Amino acid sequence: MDTNITQELKVGDKFPLTIKRIGINGEGIGFFKHVIVFVPKAVPEDVIVCEVTDVHPRFLNGRIHKIRQASRFRNPETPALADKVGGLDFAHIKYEDQLKFKADILRESLEKYKPYAYEKYNIRPTVASVQQEKYRNKAQFPIQEIDGEIRCGLYKTGTQELVDLTEMPTQMDLTMSAMRKIVEIIKDLEIPVFNPKQKSGILSMIVIRESVEFNQLQVTFITRSPKFIKERQLIERIQEEIPEVSSISQNINKEDQGAVWGDETKLLWGDEYLQEDINGYIFNFSPRAFLQLNSLQTDKLYDLVNQALEPTQRDILLDAYCGVGTIGITMSETVKHIYGIEIIPEAIEDAKANAKLNEVENADYYVGSTYKIYPELLKDGINVNSIVVDPPRTGLEGSMITTLNRNPVDKLVYVSCNPSTLAKDLVRLAERYKVVYLQPVDMFPQTPHVETVVKLVKR
Asked: N or C, fewer C-beta in 10 Å, the chain?
């Protein structure tokens, strides 16, 4: 590597660059005099003029100054919003090529961490999404008063600059139209909206979740104080003007930075839950409960989990990181018993309610960390022989992997939303389990995110 080059270059310098491959975060990667260069929104086979945005001792960050020769993978009909807001980081790539690059991102991650025999892993072609646009069933829209005008939409990529949105290619139509109507009502009623300069105002975010099956909306207002001025008038206007809204809640978060949600959520009007159908089962979701953002593709994802597990009536299934119980409940008729574990107490309450709603009697649920509760179940003599893990982006805790390796089960299915932490976890899991195949699934078209279903069996 020619590290002298990084010492010679400065921010703003330009040079020609051919993009060779996709990086694990979806950026284009090229090499300038043997130094690696990361360029967002660049695609393999692009020939560009690259402008340096950041110089590091061992690599460079750049941006596209000019495209000299566009790659055959480029989408000629990229939406105008792709350069303005997040969530469209792959919209400049043709859809069939997005699928190939998602499998490449998975390979890149495996190459980085090198789990045992990873070169021989069977990585199946990425499963396409049922819908490539208007698939997102939920959105968190910041609302702010900026220079006397109310803006509501999404942040500009990598900034806290709010872009006012009337449309969003990946968002469902009903959600977008409801958001705009709510904003008009808020303006009309002169409800105090968060002003980031003055740190004033009450309302900071509108969260909308949509049920595809029942055509209903769950609306949550995130406020900076428990007091919600003109709450009653707001609810009455929403009832009149947006009949699809079946539930209105308030979440109180006094912090301007950090997590979107505060600890306290209260129902202001309507149903406590939003209902959705997944593979013929009905599920209740409270405002903070996790539901896959792509409802139509969730059915397909769970079918793939089912195929990987191959459940039988002999199976005692651990549904780890179970959320509101969706994966386990959709398998309840094909296994002997289900033990679900989830750290969020409200989610476990929802899981119990969902089991009851679907007349599932062979499921037990526990609140707490999976890595703590699973060993206790083993100590109690519960002979788990199959496991589905669906951890957050951070992957499995080290102690959970230790338990899985010390007590290997016949069948293990890992559902991952982060190829990097998956590859890292497979380094240790491969000591006791054989990786049968990895099945990438596109849950987030127009983005570099890839979900992966991994089938593992005891060695």
From this structure: C
Distance (Å) of CA 308 to CA 403, 421, 426? 21, 20, 17
The CATH architecture one would assign to domain 5-74 is Beta Barrel (2.40)
Q: Which of 48, 59, 39 is nearest to 18 (CA)?
A: 48
Dump pLDDT digits (tens) for 192-222: 999 999 999 999 999 999 999 999 999 999 9
- Domain limits, the chain: 5-74, 99-130+290-458, 138-278
What tokens appear for 148 in the block?
């006397």
Q: In Å, how far are 14, 37, 279, 358, 371 from 303, measured between CA atoms?
A: 49, 39, 8, 18, 26
List Cβ neighbours of 123 (8 Å cut-off, separation of 6 or more): 103, 106, 107, 437, 438, 440
- Helix-helix angle 95-113:419-429, to 10 degrees: 40
Task: Specify whether the CB–CB gap between 146 and 162 falls below 8 A.
Answer: yes
Establish whether domains 99-130+290-458 and 138-278 are of one fold. Answer: no
- Helices 398-406, 419-429: inter-axial angle, 10-degree rounding: 40
Q: What's the CATH code, domain 99-130+290-458?
A: 3.40.50.150
Give how far the C-alpha of residue 134 lies from the chain's centroid of Cα atoms, to the nearest Å.
Answer: 15
For the beta sheet containing 363-367, the strands, ordered from the edge strand earlier in sequence to the opposite edge, are 363-367, 337-342, 316-320, 386-389, 411-416, 451-458, 433-441
**Long-range contacts, stretch 154-158, CB < 8 angstroms, 24+ apart:** 154/85, 154/86, 154/87, 155/85, 155/86, 156/84, 156/85, 156/86, 157/83, 157/84, 157/85, 157/86, 157/89, 158/86
Task: Output the known binding site.
Answer: 292, 321, 342, 390
Q: Using CA atoms in the order 109, 113, 115, 121, what is the torsion angle rounded to 10 degrees? A: 20
Residue type, 77: E
Task: Count CB atoms within 10 A of the CB of residue 117.
Answer: 10
SS3 of residue 118 by DSSP? helix
> For residues 446 and 325, what is the distance between their CA atoms, to the nearest angstrom?
28
222-236: pLDDT as tens digits: 999 999 999 999 999
Please tell me the pTM assigned to this model: 0.94
Listed in sequence order, the DSSP H helices in 91-196 are 95-113, 173-189
CATH topology of domain 138-278: OB fold (Dihydrolipoamide Acetyltransferase, E2P) (2.40.50)
Q: What does the alpha-carbon distance between residue 459 and residue 357 come to, in Å, rounded to a whole number?
A: 38
Q: Is 417 a catalytic residue?
A: yes
More confident residue, 83 or 31: 31
DSSP secondary structure letter of residue 123: B
Count the Cβ atoms, other than its own, within 10 Å of residue 168: 24
Residues at the binding site for S-adenosyl-L-methionine are 292, 321, 342, 390
